[in-house]
Design goal:
Number of helices: 19
Distance between the termini: 32 Å
Radius of gyration: 23 Å
Shape: globular
Bound molecules: flavin-adenine dinucleotide
Mean pLDDT: 91
Strand content: 15-25%
Largest sheet: 10 strands, mixed
CATH architecture of the domain at 6-56 and 166-240 and 349-385: 3-Layer(bba) Sandwich
Structural class: alpha+beta
Helix content: 25-40%
CATH class of the domain at 6-56 and 166-240 and 349-385: Alpha Beta
Number of strands: 18
CATH superfamily of the domain at 6-56 and 166-240 and 349-385: FAD/NAD(P)-binding domain
Length: 576
């Protein structure tokens, strides 16, 4: 789809009038592009860096209803998320797959078994299923052998799902482009064009060639995530975004082997944190702290966040005796949360917003999981400017059905993975593979052939696009894949059309970025988490007031669900 000259070709036509201009190539922009293309609108998406460069490649990779949002009373977010999770599991096997979650309950835990049980019942009811179950301590230890035995009472198992976030963005963009949409990376929207005080377009800059162009569209959409206030400021709107950073540690699966995800309350602040298997490694996350660094710089984990996450694993998996030497990679992302000044960042709402300001439509906040519902909300709000568009509907699959045969004798897991991640392009990927390239890259579940295909046909501009987002070797391998670079070069350099000098410059830039932002900070700056845990153990547990508040939220959530289900059953099936 994206052959060698695709950027130049698209740039040469960029000045044409568009129906919709979407600024931002994360999951929000991708979702809007997809739905607008489905409606046969002339739609262009521009992304200042790489597709999914922002938060959408740095999430926890869960497609989930957000049990934790239920606890903070965000019932609407949970209900929409559960519905979208079910749609995505159905439409994207191999890209979005169910994942079991375990939640342990301990003696004296608040919330305890009753509250969790009630919360999970609500959660399941929202999906019209009953997937959760309680296990005794002995049974629970069979499901999770390394969990701390101290005060263990038992625990629940329930179901959510997970994905590869960057590949989800790519697949959505690719399906939109196949449907007539246009998308280009490394093109920034620098300045909004205003006529009579209304936004009518944007001045774009190609970050590769340095060329600029003025683009006009009937609808201008700001889907720049945590950056949204930058463009809003150009129409005089006051800043509303509170950038909150969330970071993760990556462990090799053999050091922290998990068959399913584990969710538990962090011993320091009782926030839910997770450890879960993903792409052959184990991820531990996440934090939720104010992010004060400039947004244009890649975010990275801080020493304090490392200590916080190490404290979580030391508390929950003491038998594994994990140390910093076990960490193979780190990553951090910035949540585009709408700030209301709450002292505790985790109490800020995760609901998305759609704002219209002087003709600029800003869509931000929300979650990866709910991207399609966010996109439809955005397009619904501008129907007066696109009167020819048919009704906005969610009664079509989010992702296209992939009904293709793959050549060769691939095992079922590989077949499913390729169809999910590459959609309709999967057969071409397999056909392009050279001898030996359908083998997995050691220590991962990624095929060598995925590298060749991404280099050839997936809009790679820099090496970090390839190694951090098209495939995820930068997160999955201890050295970010440095020792494999000679073989990667043999496969990819000519596909990318780079000469030796360009390859070497790209490799050096990638390794420097990997060290600076995807590795641990200097060890001597990381606080001693064991000392922090000891100090915390002396503090009293959650107050009675907190307990009764949580129960009240669960009760209210049940009430709201019943009302919403009743309302939905009375709504016309076609229109949103
Ligand atoms: C740590 C963490 C964990 C999370 N975990 C989950 C999870 O498990 N499940 C879930 O559902 N959600 C999760 N989320 C939330 C989810 O990841 C985000 O809500 C979502 O990715 C936001 O997507 P976005 O497209 O709005 O923003 P982004 O992905 O940040 O995309 C915005 C893009 O706009 C580009 N841009 C900025 N300015 C310009 C400009 N002037 N011109 C052109 N382009 C521009 C940026 O480069 C960026 O790529 C998590 C978030 C974080 C931080």
């Amino acid at each position: 789809m994206w052959d060698k000259n695709w950027r130049e070709n698209l740039w040469s036509q960029i000045g044409q009038p568009w129906d919709v201009l979407v600024m931002g190539g994360g999951i929000t922009g991708a979702g809007i592009l997809r739905e607008a293309a489905r409606m046969k609108l002339r739609v262009l998406l521009v992304e200042q860096r790489d597709f999914a460069w922002g938060t959408s490649s740095r999430s926890s990779k869960l497609v989930h209803g957000g049990l934790r949002y239920l606890a903070t009373g965000q019932v609407g977010v949970t209900l929409t998320s559960v519905r979208e999770r079910e749609n995505l599991i159905e439409d994207g096997p191999g890209l979005i797959d169910p994942l079991g979650f375990l939640v342990a309950t301990h003696k004296g835990d608040r919330p305890g078994r009753f509250t969790y049980g009630a919360g999970l019942a609500v959660y399941d009811l929202m999906a019209l299923q009953w997937s959760h179950r309680y296990y005794s301590a002995e049974e629970f230890r069979l499901l999770m052998p390394y969990i701390s035995r101290e005060n263990l009472r038992g625990g629940f198992r329930y179901e959510d799902a997970q994905t590869d976030d960057a590949r989800l963005v790519l697949r959505v963009i690719q399906e939109a482009v196949a449907d007539g949409g246009a998308a280009i990376n490394y093109v920034s929207a620098d300045e909004l064009l205003l006529e009579e005080g209304q936004v009518v377009g944007a001045r774009l800059c190609d970050q590769v060639s340095g060329q600029t162009a003025e683009v006009r569209a009937r609808v201008i959409i700001n889907a720049t995530g945590a950056f949204a206030d930058g463009l809003r400021g150009q129409v005089g709107a006051a800043a509303r975004i509170r950038p909150l950073r969330g970071s993760h540690l990556v462990f090799p699966a053999w050091r922290l082997p998990l068959a399913q995800a584990v969710s538990f309350l962090h011993p320091l602040d009782r926030r839910p944190v997770f450890a879960f298997p993903w792409e052959g490694v184990t991820l531990v996350g996440t934090t939720d702290v104010d992010h004060d660094a400039p947004l244009r710089d890649e975010p990275g984990i801080t020493p304090e966040e490392v200590a916080y996450l190490m404290a979580a694993v030391a508390y929950q998996f003491p038998a594994r005796a994990l140390t910093l030497d076990d960490v193979i990679a780190t990553y951090a992302g910035v949540r585009p949360v709408i700030g209301t000044g709450k002292a505790d960042p985790s109490k800020e709402s995760r609901e998305h917003v759609v704002w219209q300001e002087n003709g600029l439509l800003t869509v931000t906040g929300g979650k990866l999981t709910t991207f399609r519902s966010i996109a439809l909300d955005a397009l619904k709000s501008v129907r007066d400017r696109l009167p020819e568009v048919a009704a906005v509907t969610d009664k079509v699959p989010v992702l296209n059905a992939v009904d293709v045969e793959l050549p060769g004798n691939l095992d079922e897991l590989t077949r499913r993975r390729l169809l999910g991640r590459y959609g309709a392009a999967a057969p071409a990927l397999v056909s392009a593979a050279q001898p030996g390239e359908l083998d997995v890259i050691p220590g991962t579940v990624t095929l060598w052939a995925e590298l060749r295909w991404a280099a050839r046909a997936e809009g790679v501009v820099h090496l970090d696009d390839l190694l951090l987002r098209r495939v995820r070797l930068g997160l999955l391998l201890p050295d970010g894949g440095e020792s494999l670079l000679p073989r990667i070069r043999t496969i990819c350099q000519s596909e990318l059309g780079w000469d030796d000098r360009q390859w070497e410059a790209e490799a050096a830039a990638y390794l420097a970025l990997r060290r600076a932002r995807y590795s641990l900070p200097e060890r001597d700056r990381i606080p001693d988490w064991n000392a922090i845990l000891r100090a915390a153990a002396e503090k009293p547990r959650a107050s009675k007031e907190h307990r009764s508040r949580t129960r009240l939220v669960v009760f209210l959530a049940l009430l709201v669900i019943v009302l919403l289900l009743w309302r939905r059953s009375r709504r016309s099936p076609e229109m949103l």
